[in-house]
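lol ok so funny story. i was supposed to be doing the assay writeup but got distracted and ended up predicting the structure for this chain instead. priorities right. anyway since i did it might as well share w the group, maybe its usefull for someone
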Amino acid sequence: MTVASRRSAADRREEILAIATRQFAEGGYRGTSTEAIAREAGISQPYLFRLFRTKQELFLAVHDHAKAHLLEVWRRQAADGPRETALERMGKAYVEELLPDRHHILLMLQSYVACADSAICEHVRARWAETVREVSQLSGAPAEDVWRFFATGMLLNVLAALDVDVATMDELAS
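and the output, tada:
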């Protein structure tokens, strides 16, 4: 296999993951059909299942892809200044870079909903724990601050899902 064909296969996989992210974000695990994902990607459903053996495998690949992107942004922020302010920079990046990607946020929420399936739940729970551990290590922040960071993030996710402008929150709370 040539480098060009490997790159092309990798690009194709990225394209399918992007389509599946949007589809799962909007329809959830149970409400999304692999047929619709394959059709939008311009491939056959059997080809999709050659790349991802099951719908569950595709869903988990999409979840892992989204988590990897999240951690990439946070790692970059943690490395871009003093450790004492890493958590603050990571939070700012979440609001500025990640929160505007509605499909990414909805996909994360749909991942928690999909925990009705025990295999998905085990996977998502493990990734959640890895994420919390990594944020703790990157920031060196006390556990209380890390939990506040994640609690605030979940509130922001809910607001994003509701399509509420975070900037208007002070107005809503008063």
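Confidence is low (pLDDT under 50) at residues 1-5. The two ends are 62 Å apart (CA to CA).
back to the writeup now i swear
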